[in-house]
């Protein structure tokens, strides 16, 4: 319940008005999250997020860690937990020189794909700085 008190003080504008109208009926974080997402995150928004995630490509100066942070945020927003989908999106976002090698390794989990990509990035940085 304490976290709900904090949330109530942080919501402003329309979100604050919305919270004031349902505050007496919400007693857990899970209830709040379900109601909040149901009220503010519609299918159109989720479709846009999926499109952004699938079209995201690693920038030339973007690290694997930065790409991973972006993807973790999007996976959480979308509620994605299917490993094969996550692996496919990760590999397709990687720069070509990493994507080929990571896909060739055939990782079974998203975490394994990330580990492979980080190793490649580390080697690339090591030998390109010589």
Observed structural traits:
mainly alpha, 2 domains, 8 helices, Retrotransposon gag domain-containing protein, Retrotrans_gag_dom
Notes on the protein architecture:
The protein has 130 residues and is mainly α. The chain folds into two domains: 2-40, no CATH class; 43-128, no CATH class. 76% of the residues lie in helices and 0% in strands. The protein contains eight helices and no strands. It has helices at 2-10, 13-22, 29-40, 43-55, 64-78, 83-93, 96-105, 110-128. α4 packs antiparallel against α5 (64-78) and α7 packs across α8.
Give the class from helix and strand content and strand pairing: mainly alpha
Total helix count? 8
Strand content: under 5%
Q: Estimate the global geometry from the Cα principal axes.
A: elongated
- Rg is 19 Å
InterPro entries: Retrotrans_gag_dom
Domain Retrotransposon gag: 9-95
Protein name: Retrotransposon gag domain-containing protein
Blueprint of the fold:
Blueprint: H1 2-10, H2 13-22, H3 29-40, H4 43-55, H5 64-78, H6 83-93, H7 96-105, H8 110-128
Helix pairs in contact: 4-5, 7-8
Task: Give a quick summary of the entry.
This is Retrotransposon gag domain-containing protein. The protein is mainly α and 130 residues long.
